[in-house]
Amino acid sequence: MSVDFDYISTNILSLSEVEELEKYTKVQYPEFDLPDETDKTYVNLCKLNEYRLMELGELTGLCDFQLEGYLAKKPLPWEDMVSVINVYLQNSKVPKYSGFFLDIGCEQKGAKQTKRGYDSVSIRLEKGKCYLYYSGGDRLSTDSVYAKTVFTEYINVLDLPVAVEEGEGYFKLKGLQGEIRLTGSKLFGKDPSGFACQIPETEPAAIVGKLKKAFELMSSGKVFECSWRIFPANLRESEFENNQFALLDLIRQHRWPAISFDVDLKLESISMSDLEGLRKGFGESDEIFVPMLSTHIKDQVQGNFRDQIYGDFGIRTIQEGHRITLSLSATETPDEIAQEVGQALKLEFVSE
């Protein structure tokens, strides 16, 4: 089912009100389907300190996660970056079964950029290999002639195993050794706005030294964000199998340099009691999304055509309580349908 229109209730409900509403929704819309294995619960916890990170209890059915640690932006803490990589490599199981990013979001030299369109230089460690990433912002995405000039200097100064190939009205990047990954390219890899290539550095100090050189070459010095991220990889081949909480627990046993942490979790499902338990420890930016049910809303006749309108209901949990979400399939009158559903369920829906 294609979903084109998203709404959320202005009403903030208690847990008991959510449970009653779910029962009432099933009565109002009896042609419903409950969530299946493709419908996941998403948990987003923001600005955790080390204590709150360790306090996070075991959550059953954890099928994916990302742990992000934020570092200082001014001045950039190069020594902390070396420490982060050292910690990541400390236990051989962590790099074996996860991927790692160290990213600096910055303003490109000679450009005036904002948080909506900045450049980034990054390091990725995965499967025993190290990649240097450069991702262009708004100007590199729209000016291919300028992008080719920038990439040529970047590749030459950093001595990267990449060649710039010119075509008629376009350019391409070709890896000379190892894998090259393109971002923002057009058809057949033309005019990319960013790329990653494998680099030979293996020691943390040398890796960060390469990142620093790339940053100083490409950046005006203005930094929008500096962070590192860890996420599962190769779990099918690992001793953890599908128990990703065991991997997360192993990771968080170490002391990670960071001002604060964000944790994104994807769960197979969550009980209402666990949902409420998590909410009680929420900060102002934390939230959980839980799928509730999908249902046939109504048939809408337009001339000789009959459109079947479907809706997906969910629960968005925030610090204050629970709100109901509604996603409607394509229709010419989504606001009108959302208002009808709201009246039937005694809720007020507004567009997201």
Strand and helix map with partners:
Elements: E1 3-9, H1 15-28, E2 32-33, E3 41-48, H2 50-55, E4 62-70, H3 78-90, H4 93-97, E5 98-108, E6 119-126, E7 129-135, H5 138-142, H6 144-158, E8 162-167, E9 170-175, E10 180-183, E11 194-198, H7 204-218, E12 219-232, H8 244-252, E13 260-267, H9 272-279, E14 287-302, E15 305-318, E16 321-329, H10 334-345, E17 349-351
Antiparallel strand pairs: 1-16, 1-17, 2-14, 3-13, 3-14, 4-12, 4-13, 5-6, 5-12, 6-7, 7-11, 8-9, 10-11, 14-15, 15-16
Characterise the protein shown here.
There is one protein chain. With 352 residues, the chain is an alpha+beta fold. 29% of the residues lie in helices and 39% in strands. The chain has 10 helices and 17 strands. It has helices at residues 15-28, 50-55, 78-90, 93-97, 138-142, 144-158, 204-218, 244-252, 272-279, 334-345, and strands at 3-9, 32-33, 41-48, 62-70, 98-108, 119-126, 129-135, 162-167, 170-175, 180-183, 194-198, 219-232, 260-267, 287-302, 305-318, 321-329, 349-351. The radius of gyration is 24 Å and the shape is globular. The mean pLDDT is 89.
